[in-house]
Amino acid sequence: GEDMGGAAVESGDAGLSAPQPDIAMGLMCLFQPVVEQIDTSVHDVQASQDVLFAQIEALQAELNKFQGLPDTPEILEWYTNKLSVARKGLNNVNSLLAGVQDRVVRLHTNVTKSAKKRQAEFA
Predict the structure, then answer these.
(1) Which residue of 28, 34, 79, 96 is 20 to 30 Å from 18, comparing CA positions?
(2) What residues contact 68, with CB distance under 8 A and at least 6 apart?
(3) Greatest CA span in the chain, whole angstroms?
């Protein structure tokens, strides 16, 4: 291929190839909004999960006040158990969200690092 600024171009039509820094910047510009949107969505879901968790905790605390009383209906215990299961499920979802958030942060870091590295190589 042709030699263009120290980089060999193997393509038959070198005029259609974008210089490497442009490709890296293009990829960064492409991924940046997606990563930011996912990050924002994860934060929003985490905030909703926190509100839901607080409401479950408050409701469970109220239901616990009635447990052990002589006239407590059995259905109350059933609902208390159901809330406990819901809280465990909520904790599982929160763990998954934390994993997604970690991946998004790593993706953002890697894309940024890669783009900067490409820019430095061709500067």
Answers:
(1) 34
(2) none
(3) 90
Task: Tell me the per-residue pLDDT of 1-25, one tens digit each, with 9 for 90 and over.
Answer: 444 444 444 444 444 555 566 776 7
CB 29 within 8 A of CB 119: no
3-state SS string for 47-73: HHHHHHHHHHHHHHHHHHHHCCCCCCC
Q: What are phi and psi of 5, to 5 degrees?
A: 65, 35
In the Cβ-directed half-sphere of 4, how many Cα atoms lie within 13 Å?
13
Least Cα distance to 69 among 54, 80, 82, 84 occurs for 80
For residues 32 and 106, what is the distance between their CA atoms, to the nearest angstrom? 12
The vertex-98 CA angle with 91 and 50, nearest 5°, equals 50
- What pTM, to 2 d.p., does this model score? 0.61
Q: Which two tokens stand for residue 22?
A: 């442009």
What CA–CA distance (Å, rounded) separates 69 from 64?
10
